Automatic annotation (TrEMBL):
<dbReference type="InterPro" id="IPR006311">
    <property type="entry name" value="TAT_signal"/>
</dbReference>
<feature type="region of interest" description="Disordered">
    <location>
        <begin position="923"/>
        <end position="946"/>
    </location>
</feature>
<dbReference type="InterPro" id="IPR009010">
    <property type="entry name" value="Asp_de-COase-like_dom_sf"/>
</dbReference>
<dbReference type="Pfam" id="PF13247">
    <property type="entry name" value="Fer4_11"/>
</dbReference>
<dbReference type="InterPro" id="IPR017896">
    <property type="entry name" value="4Fe4S_Fe-S-bd"/>
</dbReference>
<feature type="domain" description="4Fe-4S ferredoxin-type">
    <location>
        <begin position="756"/>
        <end position="787"/>
    </location>
</feature>
<protein>
    <submittedName>
        <fullName>4Fe-4S dicluster domain-containing protein</fullName>
    </submittedName>
</protein>
<feature type="domain" description="4Fe-4S ferredoxin-type">
    <location>
        <begin position="701"/>
        <end position="732"/>
    </location>
</feature>
Length: 946
């Protein structure tokens, strides 16, 4: 954090931290090394460990209980960087922003550090003694009066432990509270053919798609795989290439809608009517009125029918059971079931006795007096109108297990620190049911325990580690060889869930009916893309990462359309009071082109009171308006204009391209008529220059970014920050425009303000051949390297900022303040998250993208040792590696056969602001979309600033 923004207390001394990291090496490679006592020096050198050379381990990170496969880089027992596991079906080698921040959250100094009994520090042994008494009492009463509150989980081991507890203590009750749960798919399949199932999509097979409020590129446990498969069908390099087509109907703007070829915004309550009209059209039952233009709907249905079994209808997880039933029926009629979509038993399915409301009723009625809360934070995420605090205050014993001492932990009689994913042994299922193992990269820094150890203690087992419990759960399925292979590969082969037999699927919608259209203003609740329900609110990396569409940081806002804002008499930044059902919040307005009229979008995840970083963020707590019966959509809303203005902090203040050719795009038809879409109407690039030419005898590094594939998810920005030790600066500095990210993703609107086309453009350093920054530096801190990089020599820089002023791309960041502590004894555990291959910069120097020069150097040294050239694709930048759509290509442009050279030779390749004759090494492939020619948008003014 900055010098002006209070930095969390350090707490843990460096020596203790290094001891913990050194001891972790014994676990990081299960049978491959001995346990060191210190990192420097080693008395006994661990096998396979070479100081300065990282090791890589496969593990699994949790996302809403589901597994995302990861490869974690470890330096001397210290995890430093997350990458995707290419062998895991949910990641396919990619990551998202939350995965990238896992290392940062591991070393968060505000994590819970010790067990607490009635708010006072205690030992874990004291806790086990109390659990011994509880277990004996449960045995005598068969579990009467005791409940366990869990979140959604896919862990086979945890499910087996819960089943064992039920069997041993028949009167024990298990409740589930997950504020982001979306049961509509299971409800719909249960109504249609009698069993609860969830869909798994094959977007790589889909020619035509209709999304009914589904943000499948940005949400859900399969989002990385879906983004990968979607982009694979959108790559155009030559005239004969084809593309899939996506129609999207949305109740709030999403990155999936931004990627669609045709998009319609409708009010939340109108979505059922749209689904009903689509169902009637597919069933040839005549036209039904809906909020979507008949011609638009007819075009989408025509394309779906033409695609047949290669069509796909995707319902939004938050949508009603009726919408999900329509999607099932539509896919069945089209013959897509079993091809582009198949149904499986829900990996998260777990028999429970009720939800949080039923648990509270059981407490207040006197039936339950002991509750064990595992990971959930119900005191923050409770639905409005449900007084969980009052109910839990009546308990004789409340045990809470969690990573932070959050709102629920503060009320608990016992709080036990939870082990982080990178400190744990466990298992998870992916969105398709594939099981992968969670293995620790480091011993628990603060004595955290896994959920398996807590469940074992409840059952009276106190002497087994999480590893022993996990190994026992798989002993019948995996011998020692299979166990080691599963750890090395990151997945357990053959564990994907087989598709359910739905050949007898009816198309009568199971008796489900559409809901009626609401009157008046509506609310659409969404989870924050990075903080989710608030569990990641103490991560400064995620707080400061711009939201894909709004570019807001360190807070949230009430989103509404330009027309609705004018109707309400408000502007961006104006605070309004949003009220319904006796509950209200104050929120600043943020106008978003493409938002439906008649509704306002509120995001969850903010308004936290616990945690210093979380408390620094602005914003409101949307849970105060979210009732149990309306978790995602609500009507009967009153909006009152306040007198004051509190503009949200945003990192992008320009929203239209203002006539400049920044993002060049065309339809597939236009591309086929003239592939040189990037050159349309522009003068030829200049060849003369006063700047010197640079000879390249070895490599000449370059990058190409495919704008047809970029979905604006921000994974690349998060990966760049994690790789390059980029500081977070806090809300005050962001408000001044002092954010430090080396890579940004610009978002632009074109067309009508209420129905625009949205495009994204990642902008790293261009690494110009004729670099304006190099000429003006008075101390030669900005230099041109032998392989074409615009290098920044930090120890020469004196902070004149001439280079930044001379850069037309504005990709340089000046380090204004001492954002990081450089005293090794005071820096605290967060220093361990830094990449040792990249220097940590002090204030007063200019920073920028380096093409991950440390990775280039590593591969060059390795190639020299092996007396060979660097192979094409051997050097992978952090942004490239994280990208789920593989939109970024990097390599040696001197090699004409290299992939990056071929990308740059594509007819729609162009350079940003090439008329300035800077000759960037970073170039773009113009965005190609595939709209229906009969639905071409009319000409209109560009969308204005939001």
């Amino acid at each position: 954090m900055s010098a002006t923004d209070d930095r969390p207390a350090a707490g843990l001394d460096r020596r203790t931290l290094l001891k913990l990291m050194g001891a972790s090496l014994a676990l990081a490679n299960l049978a491959a090394c001995t346990k060191p006592q210190e990192i420097v020096p080693y008395v006994d050198q661990p096998e396979n460990l070479i100081p300065g050379r990282p090791l890589f381990y496969a593990t699994t990170l949790s996302d809403s209980g589901y597994g995302l496969g990861a490869i974690v880089e470890s330096h001397e027992g210290r995890p430093t960087k997350i990458e995707g596991n290419p062998d895991h079906p949910a990641s396919l080698g990619a990551t998202d922003a939350v995965m990238q921040a896992a290392v940062h959250s591991l070393f968060d100094p505000e994590r819970s550090r010790t067990p607490l009994k009635n708010g006072e520090p205690a030992s874990y042994g004291d806790f086990l003694r109390d659990m011994s008494g509880l277990s004996a009492a449960l045995g005598a009463s068969k579990g009467t009066g005791t409940a366990v509150l869990i979140e959604a989980t896919t862990s086979p081991t945890m499910k087996a432990q819960l089943q064992a507890l039920r069997k041993r203590f028949p009167a024990l009750h298990i409740y589930r509270h997950d504020p982001l749960v979306t049961p509509s798919s299971e409800d719909a399949t249960r109504a249609v053919f009698g069993k609860a199932l969830v869909p798994v999509y094959r977007l790589d097979r889909a020619d035509a798609m209709l999304s009914l409020d589904a943000d499948f590129l940005g949400e859900g446990p399969g989002r990385l795989a879906y983004a990968h498969d979607f982009a694979a069908r959108r790559r155009v390099r030559k005239v004969g290439d084809g593309m899939s087509r996506l129609y999207a109907v949305e109740s709030t703007p999403t990155i999936t809608g931004a990627a669609a070829d045709h998009r319609k915004a409708v009010r939340p309550s109108e979505m059922d009517g749209v689904a009903a009209a689509a169902n009637a059209a597919l069933a040839e039952e005549g036209a039904l009125p809906s909020a979507v233009d008949p011609g638009w709907l007819e075009a989408s249905i025509r394309d779906l029918q033409a695609a047949g079994r290669n069509a796909l209808v995707v319902p939004g997880p938050q949508q009603s059971s009726f919408v999900h039933a329509v999607a099932l029926a539509a896919n069945a009629r089209l013959g897509a079931l079993g091809n582009t979509v198949h149904l499986i038993e829900a990996p998260h399915d777990q028999p429970v006795d009720g939800d949080l409301a039923e648990l509270c009723h059981s407490i207040t009625s006197g039936e339950t007096d002991t509750v064990i809360v595992l990971a959930a934070n119900p005191l923050h995420t409770t639905p409005a109108g449900l007084d969980v605090h009052a109910a839990f205050s009546r308990l004789k014993l409340l045990v809470h297990w969690g990573v932070y001492r959050d709102e629920t932990a503060a009320l608990a009689h016992w709080h036990i620190p939870a082990a982080h994913d990178l400190e744990s042994w466990s298992d998870r299922r992916a969105f398709d049911g594939t099981v992968s193992l969670v293995q620790p990269l480091i011993l628990p820094l603060f004595g955290g325990r896994t959920v398996h150890e807590i469940l074992a203690a409840i059952g009276g087992t106190f002497d087994q580690s999480a590893l022993a419990l996990l190994r026992a759960a798989w002993v019948d399925r995996l011998d020692e060889t299979g166990w080691k292979k599963a750890l090395q590969d990151g997945v357990i082969a053959g564990t994907a869930t087989s598709p359910a037999d739905v050949s007898s699927l009816a198309t009568d919608l199971g008796g489900l009916k559409p809901r009626s259209v609401a009157r008046g203003l509506e609310i659409r609740f969404v989870a924050d893309p990075f903080l989710r329900d608030g569990r990641h609110a103490n991560s400064s990396w995620l707080q400061e990462l711009p939201r894909p569409l709004t570019k807001i940081v360190w807070g949230n806002a009430a989103l509404m359309s330009p027309s609705e804002a004018a109707r309400q008499g408000v502007e961006s930044g104006r605070v309004v009071n949003v009220a319904r059902a006796g509950f209200d919040v104050d929120a600043p307005v943020w106008i978003v082109p493409g938002h439906p009229d008649g509704s306002v979008t509120l995001s969850l995840g903010f308004g936290r009171k616990s945690g210093e970083v979380a408390g620094m963020a602005k914003g409101y707590d949307a849970f105060r308006l979210r009732t149990a019966d309306t978790p995602w959509f609500a009507e009967g809303v009153e909006l009152t204009r306040r007198d004051h203005v509190e503009p949200p902090v945003t990192t992008q203040h320009h929203h239209a391209m203002e006539g400049r050719h920044l993002v060049r795009h065309a339809s597939l038809g236009e591309f086929r008529n003239d592939p040189r879409i990037a050159r349309g109407g522009l003068p030829p690039a200049r060849s003369e220059s006063l700047y010197p030419d640079w000879p390249y005898d070895e490599e000449a590094w370059g990058m190409s970014i495919d704008l047809s594939a970029c979905i604006g998810c921000m994974a690349c920005v998060a990966a760049c920050q994690a790789e390059n030790n980029i500081a977070t600066v806090g809300p005050q500095q962001c408000e001044l425009g002092h954010e430090m990210h080396w890579l940004r993703v610009d978002r632009y609107y074109e067309g009508l303000a209420d129905d625009p086309q949205t495009v994204f453009q990642p902008v790293p350093c261009m690494h110009c051949e004729k670099a304006p920054c190099e000429i003006v530096c008075p101390v030669n801190a900005t230099v041109h390297t032998h392989d074409g990089l615009n290098a920044q020599v930090y120890n020469r820089c004196i902070g004149t900022r001439y280079c930044s002023q001379n850069c037309p791309y504005k990709v340089r960041r000046f380090n204004f303040l001492q954002y990081r502590s450089f005293d090794k004894e005071e820096a605290g555990p967060e220093q361990a998250a830094r990449n040792p291959d990249v220097s940590v910069r002090s204030r007063g120097v200019m920073e920028k993208c380096t093409y991950c020069v440390q990775r280039i150097s590593e591969k060059r040294i390795q190639a020299q040792i092996e007396n060979r050239q660097i192979a094409d694709g051997e050097v992978v930048t952090a942004c490239q590696q994280a990208c789920p759509t593989q939109a970024i290509t990097f390599g040696d442009v001197n090699k004409k056969a290299s992939k990056v050279a071929q990308e740059k030779a594509a007819p729609h390749s162009y350079a940003l602001l090439e008329e300035l004759n800077t000759r960037p090494r970073t170039t773009y492939l113009g965005k190609v979309s595939n709209p229906d020619v009969g639905l071409a948008p009319g000409k209109a003014e560009e969308a204005g600033d939001g």
